[in-house]
Amino acid sequence: MKWIGQFIYDQIARFRDDIYLEDVSTGTIASGGNLGLDSNNKIVKATVSSGSGDITGVTLAGDSGSASDTSANVDLTIAGGNAITTSGSSTTITINHDDTSSQASVDNSGSTYIQDVTLDTYGHVTGLTSAAIPTLNQNTTGSSGSCTGQAATVATITGLAPDTATTQAAQANITSLGTLTVLQVDDINLNTKTLKITGDTDDTFAVTAGANGATTLATLDNAGTAGHLTLDPDGDIILDTAGATINNGIILKTNGTQFGDFNVHHSNSYLTLYEAGGTSLTDYLQISVAAAGATTITTVDAGGATAHLDFAIDGHFSVASTGIDIATDGTITNATWEGTAIATSHTAAKVTSIVAGDGIDVSGATGDVTVTAETASDSNPGVVELATTAEAVTGTDTARAVTPAGLKARVSQIINLKGYAVLQNDVYDYANPFNTDDEAPFQLDVSYGSGTIDSSTEVGQSKLFRSGGFHVPFACTVSDIQAQITCNNAGNVSIALVEYKPSSASGDQNDYPRTVYETVVVASANSNNKVSSTTIATADLDSTAVPAGSHLMIMVKGDGTSAGGTAIISVAVGLSW
């Protein structure tokens, strides 16, 4: 640096000897500075220790390869690899190992060990499977061994010399056991003395031992009664019981009730069946077999003498015997039939002939004899068939007898309904109320308003109730109808027998009659001097059932020809109940 006048020029100066500065102000040397003044104000360079100095290059070596740079400013990156992440803050770089496993710690005890270890790609533990070591009576080679009553030896145990004697320890209680290769036990409970085998979810077979060794085999069908028990041995089934008295031995039960048993006592073999499925054990049938096969069939009625023994044979009943002995009340002793006569004292009881009587025919004198009842008539006794209700109602059959029910169905009561009317063309009229026409026959002069009787035309109940008719007190049926009519006009007259049942319902003030029968009668045209009659068959009735409390009444109408004429009508009705 050179001073010329007021100007300063930058130049480079080199000095070959020491340089001293005078009147130098004191201050702090910048951090990292390498030049300074010593105690004599001489400019000096700081001493550089061995291994230090200016950085001229940086190299970072990896497990494979390296990263380096020789520039004045160096930026090197520490990057994460597989399962490794890095992070930096201020002057600190943190290297983390990724958590690649959710496997928790396992702390087994006793005979439980870690059986399987699962590793990921980087060797990290991702799964542990534990298992229990079965308690087996084996040596270390896997061969079956026995330690009962003596010391056992093992081949090699770490820390124990070979063939060193070891003491057998008692097996601890097994509270759970996994599935074995050969033996699988799904449900066993010996603490309650029960061995249970599950077939379906709630269907089981159980063997239960109780006090005194009493053992029960039980099946359970939780949803029904199909828990059958089948014994299918490849050999005999042997039942060996110590019971030796009646009601004991091999006992037969249903739903817990004893109904029979097999037993042996007094040197005889017995089969006993008790009354009515085991209602009591005092009334029974018993078969007893003694020595030489001598067999006795016994029935017992403890409270009387009605333990009868009946044979209902669907086929032949054969007895192969050296003799037939029947006890008192008609004894037959060692007798044979056909070939050798039964004891003469009993011959009087045999039938020697069958003679026909009134209403009975007999064919054949020996062998098969047929006895036939004759058909009854008004002059001959015999068998008579009963008439059905329909046959009784028809009333034409002379070969069958009428029962009280058939007679009742035929006719219980006959009623007669009569009236007169001036006919309208295709409009029905019914009887005047009795308070305005109390003479018989009733005058039919109240218009129904229609030529068709159905629900489309209803009239006030009070009018129907006060009209002339017959009040039916019981539920019944109409069995017969006969209508008669005379008219002073030509043309047709229609008569209808109808019923209606009064109602007390507040919303049922109007009603219409139900038609029992409706017919068209060709009326006489001779000034009411000729009467036309029509009898109606029951099969032609529209409805025969008449409810209790109903009213029967007649309605009448004319056509275009008979309209204006006066008709007189009579209808007889047969009722049955």
Task: Provide an overview of this structure.
By secondary structure, the chain is mainly beta. Among the domains are: 250-300, no CATH class; 380-407, no CATH class; 411-576, Jelly Rolls. The chain has helices at residues 389-394, 404-410, 461-466; strands at residues 2-4, 7-9, 35-37, 43-45, 58-61, 66-69, 84-89, 92-97, 112-119, 125-132, 152-153, 165-166, 194-198, 204-209, 215-220, 250-254, 257-265, 268-274, 284-289, 295-300, 360-363, 370-373, 385-386, 400-401, 413-422, 429-431, 442-447, 459-460, 470-471, 476-487, 492-500, 510-511, 514-522, 532-536, 545-546, 551-558, 566-576. Strands 25, 26, 27, 29, 30, 31, 33, 34, 35, 36 and 37 form an eleven-stranded mixed sheet that branches. Strand 16 and strand 17 form a beta hairpin. The longest helix is centred in the last third of the chain and has 7 residues, at 404-410. It starts with a strand and ends with a strand.
Briefly note the structural class of the backbone.
mainly beta
In total, how many beta strands? 37
- At the first level of CATH, the class of the domain at 411-576 is Mainly Beta
Oligomer: single chain
Count of DSSP H/I helices: 3
Uncertain segments of ≥5 residues (pLDDT<50)? 147-155
Instruction: State the distance separating the first and last CA atoms.
Output: 156 Å
Major β-sheet profile:
11 strands, mixed
Summarize this entry quickly.
The chain has 577 residues and is mainly β. Helices cover 3% and strands 34% of the residues.
